[in-house]
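Hey Z.,

So I finally got round to the 2-acetamido-2-deoxy-beta-D-glucopyranose thing we talked about over coffee. Here's the setup:
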Amino acid sequence: MGRLSSWAVVFFVILVFEGYFCERGLSATVTYDGKALVIDGKRRVLQSGSIHYPRSTPEVWPELIRKSKEGGLDVIETYVFWNYHEPVRGEYYFEGRFDLVRFVKTVQQAGLFVHLRIGPYACAEWNYGGFPLWLHFIPGIQFRTTNAPFKEEMKRFLAKIVDLMKEENLFASQGGPIILAQVENEYGNVEGAYGIGGALYVKWAAETAVSLNTTVPWVMCQQQEAPDPVINTCNGFYCDGFKPNSPSKPTMWTENYSGWFLSYGYAIPYRPVEDLAFAVARFFERGGTFQNYYMYFGGTNFGRTAGGPLIATSYDYDAPIDEYGFIRQPKWGHLRDLHLAIKQCEEYLVNADPVQQSLGRNLEAHVYYKTSNDCAAFLANYDSSSDANVTFNGNSYFLPAWSVSILPDCRNVIFNTAKVVSQRNLGDLALSHSISVSVRELSLASATWSWYKEKVGIWGNNSFTTSKLLEQINTTKDTSDFLWYTTSINVDDNAKQGQEKEALLLVQSLGHAALVFVNKKLVGFGYGNHDDPSFVLGEKISLNHGNNTLDIMSMMIGLQNYGPWFDIQGAGIYSVILGDLKKAKEDLSSAEWTYQVGLEGEYLGLDNPNLANSSLWTQGSATPINHSLIWYKTTFFVPEGKGPLSMNLASMGKGQAWVNGQSIGRYWPAYLSPSTGCSEKCDYRGTYDSFKCLKHCGEPAQTLYHIPRTWVHPGENLLVLHEELGGDPSKISFLTRSGQEICSHVSEADPPPADAWKPMSEFVSQTAEIRLSCEQGWRITSITFASFGTPTGDCGTFSPGRCHTSVLSIVQQACIDKQGCSIPVSTSQLGDPCPGELKSLAIEALCSG
Ligand SMILES: *[C@@H]1O[C@H](CO)[C@@H](O)[C@H](O)[C@H]1NC(C)=O
Ligand SMILES: *[C@@H]1O[C@H](CO)[C@@H](O)[C@H](O)[C@H]1NC(C)=O
Ligand SMILES: *[C@@H]1O[C@H](CO)[C@@H](O)[C@H](O)[C@H]1NC(C)=O
Ligand SMILES: *[C@@H]1O[C@H](CO)[C@@H](O)[C@H](O)[C@H]1NC(C)=O
Ligand SMILES: *[C@@H]1O[C@H](CO)[C@@H](O)[C@H](O)[C@H]1NC(C)=O
Ligand SMILES: *[C@@H]1O[C@H](CO)[C@@H](O)[C@H](O)[C@H]1NC(C)=O
Ligand SMILES: *[C@@H]1O[C@H](CO)[C@@H](O)[C@H](O)[C@H]1NC(C)=O
Ligand SMILES: CC(=O)N[C@H]1CO[C@H](CO)[C@@H](O)[C@@H]1O
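And the result:
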């Protein structure tokens, strides 16, 4: 074919001297051309997924990566989190959840590639975008622009990570799994705010990265003018119109949002799999060859790792693998089917540019030819409401609105993005507020509690006084979420001694939340939200004649991680005004303020298991409830099982929790999301954005909090909570899965399962099939519904249709006591209750173990 165009000029970024690093594994050269990444001389179509290593524990990494591989991924992508790898300048940390080398090697053992996004700016809804806070205090520093101190530190960290990977032989040329690296991150979105310094910085970042001799290509995402040889890549919900800045670079999509992140005070966003599959299919249809799901597994923001402001502890992201490591169906299964369909077209996709053909209004085909009569095709209907029948290559095809069909032989449709045939699961442990039959629960109702009440105001001898309101981050250096601002108000007027005086107190804060106490009594709580963390708190207060105390507990909920100059965005109280109800205002902002960083309980280390029996703790029969600034402690036994646990904190207000000394993150169930914005069922058709599909309106963003199984042990475990607003700890419970409810609904007309696709000649003779499988070694213990004919309803609500034959015994025979089973959807196996009609099979089953 004479279709080879500009991309045919192969652009070798780096020459690799093979044999040099040959002691380990097989070394591979990674280069690229205008069509694709080229690995050992072969152009590749690659599916990638983001998994951030510190958002789960090392014990579950192999399982997460195995599930990613089974889901059809070729590449695992992660950021590198500078602030945890270098908590103090020059002191490095690569242990536990931060063992980057172990993570990369775990991916390697599974036989997958790694895309290492070193950054060092990560964003990622991670505290301070991944920058260490000490960076902020280097004299003269300006982040992410052409500033000498910043460039020096950034280069040092980039080199540190590259050297670490080289020492461990982890680059592809050394026999390792790393095939791609990233420098900076989404800088194009903010570059304008940095003026000429921004452009110079981009050039410097690219040169610096390339000079590090990684032997793999570098990418910059959202960076239109990424200098050669760095590849500019696309991030977004859709990237099918994206073209790189040079015909010698491949079309790559580094962040395809599988859902969206969660913030306290917001409803839970989700992205229907039909739309996600549509976006991916369109990207490959129009010439893309590398795509990454952000996230494929989101996980948990343990400790104080969440970014901000107000990013929730759950980083579930509606990803194909849920926060707890369970496969999210049908998302995972439908995408797996899509990846197999695209893989089936790989030889065509890397061989030629697609030829576009209009099939009508909002209807088009893209055909990839190997020879004039050997081709693969994608047929798209990108209309957001009208289904269509199209004629292509002499055949007629039905195309639902907002869908793409994949035809690896230009003839047979093996996949349509809107037609989900994969297994579905009921009862999402990560997000469901209702307890399903397959969840085991253990309540703390009869637990014995101890507590420790924080003093209101200054508690230690390291407080300091100054006559102005201080910015919080500069003051705490993020060693704590908390800063006490205290002052006194002297009422010296004609009022009689002992008489109270009414006043109006106006507190203004840059964020993120604050408790206000007058004369040690709580008078108000103010807070912002993710999009605007600032707030104003106006309270009517009563003051005594003489001296009154004003104590403000200002709280941070994750440092900003995004936006131009986000690193100097401040927090804390900036104005306090006392309004006399009759007379003039008094500005207390420049009064004498005494400050104390952190809580006394933090200073004492109450979260530390070594203090579990300390006399600091008060024990008694009446546990204080609905009390602000209080620490609670108890011991608990975990529900039996091997899987992950969650803790239901719906009865608590806002705070942080520790299990056996490990912080499971900040909680804030008292913050309800707006009651509107959710719809019963979200239509996947039409352009998606992060506000389109929301659930749990009017409810807390998060009530269930993840506890990794490796953080607990048989026998007594220690739970410590610091409650800031007021809650009832006796209503806390622990949950774990004891099984799964699974189901599937497949029609005779549906394509056969993905792994039956090869070769196409065999595919044509295959029939549709239902496949069911359990996770975690569970087995199918009962079939709760099975009907062949015209069953109606959805998973959980199936009922037999007008045409029905019970196939219960056939299904039981095939499935009971098995971890997985398959049933062909055909009359020859199941009988024919209504000849001539299109029939389907619906099954619901229970896994347990
Ligand atoms: C990269 O390799 C080149 C050529 O081998 C060498 O001159 C240069 O010093 C290397 N740079 C680094 C940072 O290792
Ligand atoms: C497509 O064709 C089928 C079969 O001929 C027909 O039943 C259906 O109504 C058509 N749909 C559209 C949107 O034209
Ligand atoms: C107060 O000071 C003493 C020594 O001067 C020190 O040991 C102690 O830890 C300090 N306490 C607090 C709460 O800062
Ligand atoms: C008010 O009380 C505080 C705390 O007891 C004290 O530090 C301050 O000096 C007093 N102010 C006045 C004006 O008496
Ligand atoms: C923190 O302090 C630095 C250096 O003193 C200053 O440049 C910066 O503006 C301060 N940050 C905020 C948010 O006030
Ligand atoms: C606290 O007391 C319990 C029960 O007496 C004991 O099992 C545990 O080891 C003690 N913990 C510490 C840290 O001393
Ligand atoms: C908790 O205390 C607040 C303020 O004192 C009060 O408004 C609220 O009703 C109390 N809630 C419960 C459940 O007791
Ligand atoms: C390229 C692209 O679509 N980027 C978008 C990614 O998502 C964020 C958040 O919704 C948008 O602001 C970007 O424009």
